[in-house]
Amino acid sequence: MPTSKKLFDTTHDCPTVGGILLVGKDPVHVLFGAYIQYVKFAGTSRTSRVLNERQFSGNLITMLNEIDYFIKYTIQTQRPVFVTVLREEMRINYPYEAIRELAMNMVMHRNYQTNAPAKFYEYSDRIEMDNPGNLYGKVRPDNFPNESDYRNPVIAETMKTLGYVNRFSRGVNMVQEMLEENKNGLAKFDFRDITTFKVTVMNADVEAESEAKSDTENGERRELNPANNENNIKNVEAKNIDEVTERVTEKQQLILDNIAKNPYITSNELAVQIGISAVKVRVNLSKLKDKGFIKRIGGDRGGYWKID
After folding, report:
1. Which of 129, 135, 166, 194 is the most buried (most CB within 10 A)?
2. pTM for this structure?
3. Assigned CATH for 8-205
């Protein structure tokens, strides 16, 4: 099977580069730039405060699943907005399918011969993906995206087999349709740097990002009063540990620990810290409230958690 998929070189009795990337235990040990660097900035430039950062590494079979999950439950947000007095609609910052397609293309088409990682930077008003390696083969700025060629054909074939991409030059056109429908505007592709391929997608819900940034800054100012966090931590320590262990799961205990340190932590931040989806975090928060361990003071934006 590995030989048929061009993952192993029988002549030299060693895995191919595609094999190392797809199923190797630690590809970055050999290919130093084989990872995705994700950073979320509070503002519109790299000088802004960093809100979140993560490195997606490991073999591609694992990484593809992780980045897919991350985009769906951490990058994409939605909220109801009233369009008339009687009707509301969901406003989505970035359509999951569009950002997923661009991220998968980044993995499939990048140049793995460089030590530079692929960059996935999220600003308050946009997402930028900066990929080592510009257009390849017969693809040129004048025929992009209607022409296709593959720098990494083994990776492309495997990703197609696993259902992450198609190989009919339809992906980018579908992305543009989804972005226009969601009112993000068209993605902008930049081919000017011969060493990289850059795409920018504008945020369709900048207002929500501005509110979240304001809430975070207010929360940080409140945290300057040490009594806020100390009281929470004391409440946790004051509980009978055996009783708590019997009544909460391991994940719920991790949620309590994180809330004790930062009462203003969000569901998405908890998801990243604990390693579960934001949906599961909200389910566990609801259970902890029902059990009387925590209560919410204030609304979703600007409120905080209190441990009883």
Report:
1. 129
2. 0.68
3. 3.30.565.60
